[in-house]
Write a structure and sequence with these properties.
The protein has three helices and nine strands, in the order αβββββββααββ. By secondary structure, the chain is an alpha+beta fold. 22% of the residues are buried.
Length: 183
């Protein structure tokens, strides 16, 4: 009986050692995420009063090399007022992008501003490799197939999709710009 208990304890100890050593050196498996359509997400991660600038970063599942444009804008009556020139940054291999924007000459970044972030195929000249994936006019951004180009908006569930004349499609998102100097 003593021999049986001793053997049982050794067997259990051996199982524990084997189980733990097989886990050593293994990194956790990386979970893959998916989205039903293309997206862009952005965040203002810094805004400084002197020198006056806005730093932003974001993520997208657009192809690497896709060019994302960003501009700081405010509301002025029933229209937009741009507080910066447009900045264009690429999406990297990991799906991230980042940039920094200075205000237009003579302007300061104040309160209640937003960062408008866009992906467009019609204004910003996109690399050929990107256009092969999303379509020359952005027609694959909506995540719909076998739909005439003029009906994409009516069939897509992508909330970031927009359409302009000439049946060009793009993606847009916004991020709040904190008042520079506020922490």
């Amino acid at each position: 009986m003593k021999l049986f208990l001793s053997f049982g304890v050794c067997a259990i100890a051996l199982c524990i050692v084997v189980a733990t050593t097989s886990l050593v050196g293994q990194s956790p498996s990386r979970k893959t995420f998916s989205a039903p359509t293309y997206y862009i997400a952005a965040r203002v991660n810094d805004c400084e009063p002197d020198p006056n600038y806005v730093a932003f970063r974001g993520a997208s599942n657009l192809p690497p090399g896709a060019l994302i444009s960003a501009i700081v804008t405010g509301f002025e009556f029933d229209a937009w007022k741009d507080y910066s020139d447009e900045v264009v940054v690429p999406v990297n291999e990991q799906g991230f992008f980042a940039g920094e924007i200075q205000p237009k000459q003579g302007l300061r970044l104040g309160r209640n501003l937003i960062l408008r972030v866009n992906f467009e195929t019609y204004r910003t000249k996109q690399p050929t490799s990107v256009l092969e994936v999303v379509g020359k006019k952005g027609e694959r951004l909506g995540g719909v197939e076998n739909v005439p180009i003029i009906d994409i908006m009516g069939h897509s569930q992508n909330p970031q999709l927009f359409q302009v004349s000439g049946w060009y499609y793009g993606l847009e998102t916004i991020a709040r710009v904190p008042h520079c100097g506020e922490k």
